[in-house]
């Protein structure tokens, strides 16, 4: 499997304000000389179940360590923009971060597997895929001085349009929000024009005509009040992508053993809680969409077949790039499902 591309241009984080500079430039200590503080950057807003879970993780760490380690969550991209979070954690500008895992797809095929249509279309499959790929992801992160803490899936991805989607040809020429490489390729395979738009920018993108449709979860549709722009959601269950929360390994290693264990325990609890929250949010979000005038449908046999064909092209391409290690990962995943 390909190694991360170290030749990629590393962008310098954008300074949001002088206050931001003061926050991350200060020594990460508070209270007493032994009380450490971590800044954790996430691009997701406070209404997201992911952010709520991350904040609970932070509270659990503070409580378990009696305040010896405080984790401050900076939500909604208020501290660092999404694409700059991983480089910033790697450099130690901030100690921890949360990202949409597949935005790293250009670094390794491992990072894009959970956004391949048809590979994992249920929570059971998505969790098995995480367990199978976790060793590879941990190894890749370790090469950059990073350590995964936990990962949580989004609800299954569907297609938002302003019409009842019954045929893949209806997507031809539409500007479709696609937040990662695989989604962009998938949109191209169905004849659409991929548009990269961060979650927080979705309302503006629709209102200004930059996007006509989007591929995302019922959860994002709810949090973005998608009913203001479109009225149809095809619950195609294309894939269940993940967010991953991770830490600078040097920052973790500076903690004493008991504090490290408290972080790991809180992370384990956050992962369990987060997956359950995702399931609950999927159900609640569908209900909210319906209450706000959405028509929710599922693909008929012909549409499902056409969407699968578009996804199969991506999967075959992935296998050719991932090589033998990718095949071994798939075998572990399938073995976990059959166990």
Automatic annotation (TrEMBL):
Source organism of the structure: Cobetia amphilecti
Question: Coiled-coil segments, which residues?
Answer: none
Q: What is this protein called?
A: TRAP transporter substrate-binding protein
Give the Gene3D superfamilies listed for this entry: Bacterial extracellular solute-binding protein, family 7
Which InterPro entries does the UniProt entry name for this protein?
DctP_fam (IPR018389), TRAP_DctP_sf (IPR038404)
Short name of one Pfam family = DctP
A GO term (biological process) for this protein?
transmembrane transport
Residues in the signal sequence: 1-35
Domain of life (superkingdom) = Bacteria
PANTHER family from the entry?
PTHR33376, SIALIC ACID-BINDING PERIPLASMIC PROTEIN SIAP (PTHR33376:SF4)
Give UniProt keywords alphabetically.
Signal
């Amino acid at each position: 499997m390909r190694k991360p591309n170290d030749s990629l241009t590393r962008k310098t984080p954008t300074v949001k304000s002088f206050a931001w500079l003061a926050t991350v430039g200060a020594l990460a200590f508070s209270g007493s000389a032994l009380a450490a503080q971590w800044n954790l950057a996430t691009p997701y807003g406070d209404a997201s179940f992911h952010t709520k879970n991350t904040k609970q993780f932070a509270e659990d760490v503070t409580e378990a360590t009696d305040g010896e380690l405080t984790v401050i969550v900076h939500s909604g991209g208020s501290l660092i923009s999404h694409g700059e979070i991983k480089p910033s954690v790697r450099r130690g500008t901030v100690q921890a971060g949360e990202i949409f895992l597949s935005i790293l797809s250009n670094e390794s095929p491992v990072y894009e597997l959970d956004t391949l249509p048809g590979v994992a279309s249920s929570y059971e499959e998505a969790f098995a895929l995480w367990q199978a790929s976790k060793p590879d992801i941990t190894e890749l992160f370790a090469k950059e001085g990073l350590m995964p803490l936990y990962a949580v899936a989004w609800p299954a991805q569907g297609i938002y349009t302003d019409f009842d989607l019954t045929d893949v040809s209806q997507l031809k020429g539409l500007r479709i929000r696609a937040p990662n490489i695989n989604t962009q390729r998938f949109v191209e395979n169905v004849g659409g024009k991929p548009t990269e738009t961060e979650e927080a920018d979705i309302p503006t993108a629709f209102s200004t005509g930059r996007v006509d449709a989007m591929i995302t979860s019922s959860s994002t549709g709810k949090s973005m009040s998608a009913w203001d722009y479109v009225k149809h959601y095809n619950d195609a269950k294309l894939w269940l992508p993940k967010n991953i929360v991770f830490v600078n390994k040097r920052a973790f290693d500076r903690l004493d053993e008991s504090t490290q264990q408290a972080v790991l325990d809180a992370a384990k609890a956050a992962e369990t809680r987060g997956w359950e929250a995702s399931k609950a949010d999927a159900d609640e979000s569908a209900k909210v969409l319906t209450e706000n005038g959405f028509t929710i449908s599922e693909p008929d046999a012909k549409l499902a077949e056409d969407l699968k064909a578009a996804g199969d092209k991506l999967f075959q391409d992935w296998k050719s790039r991932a090589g033998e290690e990718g095949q071994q990962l798939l075998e572990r995943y399938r073995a976990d499902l059959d166990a």
